[in-house]
Inverse folding.
């Protein structure tokens, strides 16, 4: 619902996140294509999209919590959720800075929604972002953010929130057009700053969320500049993949502020592009280094790092210099080391997804490059990875790799697809066969209920064993063996020829033996195959095909 000119409430925050996500989805490839600073790795648009996706998801969760009642979320709850979601989901240098910009705004908007608070929020955001970057550089997103805040400040005395955000947007557009003259690497490549362009897109969405109208002057259009080519990016990327640090390291960190101050000093000595954002005990750390282990070790000394993501810059160049690419490869996301070994033995390149730590698009792109093939089939094995996988596939295609994304939603579907993979047949025929095998595999899993809640199967209590089929709770049980049998029976009621069981790390082999016997005695001509999955975060994965 359109907001009034002076209205910045929780609904406007929700709309802002939704519009920004939609706009970044449209602009992602174009922003990726002009990404030459600080590293010409072509992922700024993708990283911004995934960061805003996390922010939008957090805001939607706040609204979902209010659906059963008559109340709506308070503005403070919505902006804090937005900032927290961006913080924990920030990707890359640009996403980390955007997270700090949103956090700076949230700290002010939590206290008020009028024009004065919006002006102060934009100022606080620009200041916080600069403070988060170890060595601020002009001609970047920081310059664009500062210009937006200064333009908003010039509306002092105007009571219209719409006037404030419109001025911020126009100030950002003007500053963005000037970035090629401020940063030499941009001027040589003939492009504006990619992170700054992403921020203009986000501010455009803010104008529409507040006013209900597309900003005056319409959508920002790039000035008449030459498109960046791969060669130009390589020539301009001073400190890029071939000359600068080899790894990008990102992690969330639980630590006290004084420990983070020491961490900044330590990481600044290890590498560059250092950005540390957050506060109140939770931080997002981003740095480019040659020694990724040392960067993680520094986080361990400061507090508790988790969701650690390490991306090797230019991994594709390493392969291209040593051998000709194969015709076809398969990239598989797996939930545990056991399945990683299984898929590797089948010739696939694997990406490990630990519980609560989904791989970023950069990790998937790196895996596609490591597959070192002209054609790649990508199996994400998780419905929540669909956007990330699609973004990775699109980026790999811009590098000349033919990528087919099969939207597998569970590891057992990926196993089924990999089982029928035939690299000697045509790419299209192989993709069709793998897609059909995955689609013919129904999937289930067991989980332990963390608290009392309503489910499709009734009310569960904390500690109950939940049997899920296709993502919905179908069985509530008291123990793993009984619940597993009930889930298998329900799945086989619709027919099937093969049951696949993937055991969790601490599940005894005796359970697999008992379930195999249960299938053998109750279902003639149905075979069972068992794999060890490792640390997959669930006792049992089940597939029926």
């Amino acid at each position: 619902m359109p907001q009034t000119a002076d209205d910045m409430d929780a609904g406007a925050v929700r709309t802002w996140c939704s519009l920004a996500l939609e706009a970044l989805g449209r602009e992602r490839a174009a922003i990726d294509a002009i990404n030459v600073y600080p590293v010409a790795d072509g992922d700024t648009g993708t990283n911004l999209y995934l960061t805003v996706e996390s922010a939008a998801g957090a805001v939607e969760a706040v609204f979902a919590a209010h659906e059963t009642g008559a109340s709506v979320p308070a503005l403070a709850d919505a902006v804090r959720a937005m900032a927290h979601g961006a913080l924990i989901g920030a990707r890359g240098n640009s996403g980390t800075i955007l997270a700090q910009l949103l956090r700076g705004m949230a700290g002010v908007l939590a206290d008020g929604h009028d024009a004065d608070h919006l002006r102060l929020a934009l100022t606080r955001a620009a200041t916080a972002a600069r403070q988060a970057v170890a060595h601020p550089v002009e001609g970047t997103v920081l310059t664009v953010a500062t210009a937006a805040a200064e333009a908003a400040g010039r509306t002092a005395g105007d009571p219209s929130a719409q006037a404030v955000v419109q001025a911020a947007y126009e100030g950002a557009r003007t500053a963005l057009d000037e970035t090629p003259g401020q940063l030499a690497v941009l001027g040589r490549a003939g492009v504006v700053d990619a992170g700054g362009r992403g921020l203009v897109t986000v501010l455009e969405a803010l104008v529409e969320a507040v006013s209900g109208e597309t900003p005056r002057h319409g959508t920002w259009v790039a000035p008449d500049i030459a498109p960046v080519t791969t060669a130009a990016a390589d020539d301009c990327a001073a400190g890029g993949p071939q000359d600068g640090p080899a790894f990008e390291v990102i992690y969330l960190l639980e630590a006290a502020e004084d420990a983070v101050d020491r961490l900044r000093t330590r990481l600044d000595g290890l590498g560059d592009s250092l950005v540390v954002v957050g506060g109140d005990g939770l931080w997002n750390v981003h740095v480019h280094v040659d020694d990724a282990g040392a960067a993680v070790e520094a986080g361990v000394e400061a507090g508790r790092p988790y969701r650690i993501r390490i991306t090797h810059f230019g991994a594709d160049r390493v392969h291209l210099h040593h051998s000709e690419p194969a015709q076809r490869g398969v990239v598989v996301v797996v939930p545990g080391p056991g399945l990683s070994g299984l898929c590797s033995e089948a010739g696939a390149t694997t990406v490990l997804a630990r519980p609560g730590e989904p791989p970023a698009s950069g990790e998937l792109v790196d895996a596609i490059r490591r597959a070192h093939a002209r054609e790649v089939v990508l199996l994400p094995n998780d419905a929540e990875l669909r956007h990330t996988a699609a973004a990775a596939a699109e980026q790999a295609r811009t590098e000349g790799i033919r990528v087919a994304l099969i939207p597998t939603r569970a590891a057992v579907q990926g196993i089924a697809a990999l089982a029928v993979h035939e690299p000697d047949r045509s790419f299209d025929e192989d993709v069709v066969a793998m897609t059909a095998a995955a689609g013919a595999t129904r999937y289930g899993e067991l989980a332990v209920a963390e608290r009392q809640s309503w489910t499709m199967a009734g009310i569960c209590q904390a500690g109950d064993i939940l049997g899920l089929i296709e993502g919905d709770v179908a069985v509530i049980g008291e123990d793993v063996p009984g619940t597993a049998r009930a889930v298998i029976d329900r799945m086989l009621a619709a027919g099937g020829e093969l049951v696949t069981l993937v055991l969790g790390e601490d599940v005894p082999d005796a359970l697999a033996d008992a379930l195999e016997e249960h299938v053998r005695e109750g279902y003639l001509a149905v075979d069972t195959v068992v794999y060890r999955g490792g640390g997959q975060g669930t006792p049992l994965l089940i597939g029926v095909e």
Q: What stands out?
A: The first strand starts at residue 247 and ends at 254.
